[in-house]
Write a structure and sequence with these properties.
The complex is a heterodimer of chains A (240) and B (277). Chain A has helices at residues 28-43, 61-76, 87-92, 102-108, 110-116; strands at 7-10, 13-17, 47-52, 80-86, 129-132, 141-144, 147-150, 159-162, 166-172, 175-178, 188-193, 197-200, 203-206, 224-229, 232-237. With 240 residues, chain A is α/β, with parallel strands linked by helices. Chain A has 2 domains: 2-92, Cell-division inhibitor MinC, N-terminal domain (Transcription Regulator spoIIAA, 2-Layer Sandwich), CATH 3.30.750.50; 125-237, Pectate Lyase C-like, CATH 2.160.20. In chain A, a hairpin with a 2-residue loop joins strand 12 (197-200) and strand 13. The termini of chain A are far apart. Chain B has 13 helices and 8 strands. Chain B has helices at 28-41, 58-61, 72-77, 82-85, 111-122, 138-144, 158-172, 190-194, 201-208, 220-228, 232-235, 241-252, 267-276, and strands spanning 15-20, 46-50, 87-88, 95-98, 127-131, 149-154, 180-188, 211-217. The termini of chain B are far apart.
């Protein structure tokens, strides 16, 4: 299913891994179109590279047509195609593993953990902050090599993994991991914090969430701030 | 008996609504059967399609299991014509069921085929309700292939709400095709909500933020009607889950219907109890 195309983010940029897809299959393009629409909620305006199955030859007329269509579908969702790679090139780019302990990422998503080990560094062409203007619903994942700003809520079991800071103009109920490359100064700011767990760099903290019973209506305190202080994750208020 | 006369006016293009939830066991099939019957009761030409291929249930809830001859997969494969496979309801001649195949599985059809089938079905009906299987795999993708709108069914439980949230994310990715996503909260127990032991509608909406189209109280009579094969929306009293389904059907036809006051069901003693709980 095209809806499950792996998105890899490393410092060379964002990659759509089509190497396992049957891209010559007649259904592929329509599924790919649905996929691009889905990712456009958070990838609109960015550029991606695609990784092709080994047997696709750019010289081949028919394969080339498919590629043109892939590019078109991406462009329709306001995503530009930066580069086209085949499997071998991708594998050669392996890099030292990220500073996050494998076991930790493993619990978050074992598939992604293996990907993150392959990451390479060069964020020059990506904007420093990814601006997401929508709610993130369950199952949606944002991985970004910079900061992430969300204008909306992050719902339970949605995930944001950012190398920089995470700012949420809404309620955080899902998973947020700031400083995912090991930056201990990264922070998470949310208007409201209702998640059970936050992660900064290689640290994890569990948070006791207030049940809806204790929640005071119209409670307009300052936004919540999560950061590392004295080697420990602390939860405090953000006063600018 | 099994051949249904279908409306021959082919310029007609009914509304296709998929009933989905993500999580299993929250009442998708019950909702489909009840809203289908209620729409037929309002005089609408209605077809309910069971897309749960391999785990067919909708025919039982509608009391039509003995009349099933052909099924959806056979229509798609060309073994029979659409009109041969449609099973007409006992009570309402304007209500038809397109049953799922029980001896096949979800991979026996693909989204393109389902879309083509639904385009054909909608020519003959005002409303086409598609009963979607649980999950987000091919069965779900097939079910939403031809839909114009979606009814998302949740029960007041965190697990149900989270799965529904995932579904809504997938539906929103196709917002150019699926115009409206509406929320039905099923199996509400007002007593438990008042004592904060169950998620309230507000708690659910805080996460899902959808257009609420129905609140259905938990009702023992649903179990009875399910086993009898007689949707409660035909027989139920005006305080029952059946009434809630009838209201949803009216809202689907564009009518403005106020929501039932579920607390009244609690009765005087119930409310006293809730106060002290």
């Amino acid at each position: 299913m095209a809806a499950t195309i792996p998105i890899r983010k490393n410092k060379k940029g964002t990659f759509l891994d089509l190497s396992k897809e049957e891209i010559r299959d007649q259904n592929f393009l329509s599924e790919f179109e649905i996929f691009t629409k889905e990712i456009s909620t958070f990838m609109s305006g960015t550029s991606v590279s695609i990784i092709l199955p080994e047997d696709i030859k750019l010289e081949d007329q028919e394969d080339n047509e498919i590629l043109k269509k892939i590019r078109l579908k991406l462009n329709m969702s306001n995503i530009s195609l930066k580069n086209i790679l085949n499997c071998e090139e991708e594998i050669q780019k392996q890099e030292p593993s990220s500073p996050i302990p494998e076991s930790f990422v493993e619990t978050a998503s074992s598939a992604q953990a293996k990907e993150s080990a392959k990451e390479v560094i060069d964020t020059n062409y990506l904007p420093e902050t990814l601006y997401v203007e929508s709610n993130l619903r369950s199952g949606q994942l944002i991985r970004y090599p910079g900061n992430v700003f969300v204008l909306g809520d992050v719902n339970p079991s949605a995930e944001i993994i950012a190398a920089g800071d995470i700012v949420i103009w809404g309620t955080l109920r899902g998973v947020a991991h700031a400083g995912s490359d090991g930056d201990q100064t990264a922070k998470i700011i949310a208007m409201e914090l209702k998640t059970g767990q936050v992660r900064i760099a290689d640290k994890i903290a569990t948070i006791k969430t207030e049940s809806s019973k204790d929640k005071k209506k119209g409670d307009s305190r300052a936004p919540e701030l999560v950061k590392i202080q004295n080697n420990e994750i602390i939860l405090t208020r953000y006063f600018g | 008996m099994t051949e249904t006369e279908i409306n021959s006016n082919s310029n007609f293009a009914g509304k296709v609504i998929v009933v989905t939830s993500g999580k299993g066991g929250v009442g998708k099939t019950t909702t489909t059967a009840n809203i289908g019957a209620a729409l037929a009761g309002l005089g609408k030409n209605t077809c309910v399609i069971d897309m749960d291929i391999g785990l067919r249930n909708l025919d039982i809830l509608m009391g039509l299991e003995n009349r099933v001859v052909y099924n959806l997969v056979e229509v798609i494969e060309g073994t029979c014509k659409l009109k041969q496979a449609l099973v007409r309801d006992k009570k309402f001649p304007n209500l038809s069921l397109l049953p799922a195949a029980q001896t096949r599985d979800k991979t026996s059809v693909n989204a393109e085929q389902v879309k083509a089938l639904i385009e054909e079905v909608r020519k003959h009906f005002d409303f086409v309700l598609v009963d979607c299987p649980a999950g987000i795999e091919s069965g779900f993708q097939n079910s939403i292939a031809g839909a114009d709108e979606a009814l998302v069914v949740v029960t007041p439980e965190m697990s149900s709400v989270r799965d529904a949230d995932r579904i809504v994310g997938l539906l929103e990715a196709r917002r150019d095709q699926i115009g409206g996503v509406h929320l039905i909260v099923n199996r509400i127990k007002p007593g438990l909500i008042e004592t904060h032991q169950m998620m309230s509608i507000e708690d659910i909406q805080e996460i899902l933020a959808l257009d609420l189209i129905g609140m259905v109280p938990d009702d023992e009579d649903i179990v009875v009607s399910t086993n009898k094969g007689e949707p409660l929306s035909i027989t139920g009293s005006n305080k029952s889950a059946g009434q809630a389904y009838r209201n949803i059907a009216r809202r689907l036809t564009g009518e403005e219907v106020p929501f039932m006051d579920l607390n009244k069901r609690l009765g005087f003693m119930g409310r006293i109890k809730a106060m002290f709980a």
